[in-house]
Design a protein that fits this description.
By secondary structure, the chain is of the alpha/beta class. It has 14 helices and 12 strands. The chain is 39% helix and 14% strand.
Length: 392
């Protein structure tokens, strides 16, 4: 009531009862990647207001790769996330030191550091750790702010331009186009030794990389099983060899091979539709049914992209008709296998004048969450309604 004013009372009809068989909406565990209080322009209170986004995917970005994560920094990250009314159960990423990927004599020290970091994360309730085993570069684009017809901009990969790039020019491009933010997988302290890294990887082929991955997985699985942490390896992005470097997480056949490296179900995938979907030969719904049915997908990156006949691709909105991926069929595949793991939108466009870390703005990823949750709810209730009709 304001200044004695009372709003009129109006009668409201009771909503129709919904059968419990229909109201079965059980969403995947939706999350939002956040880069921390000192390196993300998106405050947590804004993330909290996205409908259906209770979880944060976080990490410690100021700890050198290969070092043990300090207990107090892990606790601080968890406390500020929970103070905002959100949860922290997924880490992306605990990066793997290059000596482990190379199979260098020093790898055992870095593996033990990794094992200790996992123990510390497990003690505070972390359930999934996303990581990758890509040599040198985690992901590659040729333009971090490619203009789209609607006036937005997005990450873009131009196949012809890649042929003329060198690792050094790519590093320079990313440094100049990142809007002052660190880009995941492009940490300057690690890439400062770019020439030396390439020289070391010159003797590492795909078979050797698989062998080094197996050595790593076998060493960490006992810790993962003890502390209930699922390891979720991210596919190569893009899923083909770059600059002569091997790629081993690119399609169904080599994912079968990598999952066979260790039988533990704690050894699993981050299934990224954008990374795998840039290769049109990958049948994403079929792969989700295969690996999700095995219980080996622990984390889902759901994003759309638009492929072009010449090999180019650009990130797109999550809406199916804006890209080359059928997001309905992708989400339906997750529903069909009873997926209850973590999911996040990925690589949004920059829209409505927003600026920030390329691919990681607020608005388009928030729209992506709403779209993905809407797909899941519609599929879930549709399945329940079909069941109810069959029983009638």
């Amino acid at each position: 009531m304001v200044d004695g004013y009372r709003p009129p009372v109006r009668s409201v009809a009771s909503p129709p009862a919904i059968s419990p068989l229909i109201a079965t909406f059980q969403p995947m565990k939706m999350t939002f990647r956040w880069f921390g209080e000192h390196d993300d322009c998106i405050p947590l209170w804004q993330v909290r207001q996205i409908p259906g986004s209770p979880g944060i995917v976080g990490a410690l970005f100021d700890v050198p790769v290969g070092e043990v994560w300090p207990v107090e920094k892990i606790a601080h990250l968890k406390s500020i996330v929970e103070a905002a009314g959100l949860t922290l159960e997924v880490i992306e990423s605990v990066n793997v030191h290059d000596d482990i990927k190379l199979g260098a004599p020093s790898r055992d020290r870095y593996i033990e550091n990794y094992r200790e970091t996992l123990r510390r994360l497990g003690r505070v309730g972390i359930k999934v750790v996303c990581y990758n085993f890509m040599p040198v570069f985690d992901w590659l684009r040729t333009d971090l702010a490619h203009p789209l017809p609607d006036g937005s901009n997005a990450l873009f990969y131009e196949a012809a331009k890649v042929k003329d790039l060198t690792p050094a020019t790519v590093l320079d491009l990313f440094s100049r186009s990142s809007n002052g933010f660190k880009l995941p997988g492009w940490e300057p302290e690690r890439l400062a030794q770019l020439k030396e890294l390439f020289a070391k990887y010159s003797v590492v082929d795909a078979d050797k990389l698989y062998a080094n991955l197996k050595y790593f997985i076998d060493a960490i699985m006992p810790v993962c099983e003890e502390f209930d942490i699922r390891m979720a390896i991210h596919p190569d992005d893009p899923p083909w060899p770059m600059f002569g470097l091997p790629r081993i997480v690119t399609n169904q056949a080599n994912i079968d091979r990598l999952l066979a490296l260790n039988p533990s179900t704690y050894h699993g995938l981050t299934f990224c539709t954008g990374s795998l979907g840039s290769n049109g030969a990958n049948d994403l719904p079929a792969m989700i049914r295969r690996f999700g049915g095995q219980g080996r997908i622990h984390f889902a990156h759901c994003r759309n992209l638009k492929r072009f006949p010449n090999g180019d691709f650009t990130e797109a909105s999550h809406l199916s008709t804006d890209g080359s991926l059928d997001m309905y069929e992708i989400v339906k595949a997750y529903h069909d296998v009873g997926f209850t793991g973590y999911v996040r939108p990925d690589h949004g466009r920059m829209i409505w004048g927003e600026t920030g870390r390329p691919g990681y703005g607020l608005y388009d990823r928030a729209l992506g969450i709403a779209y993905l949750n809407g797909l899941w709810e519609a599929i879930d209730k549709g399945v329940a309604l079909d069941r109810a009709r069959r029983r009638a």
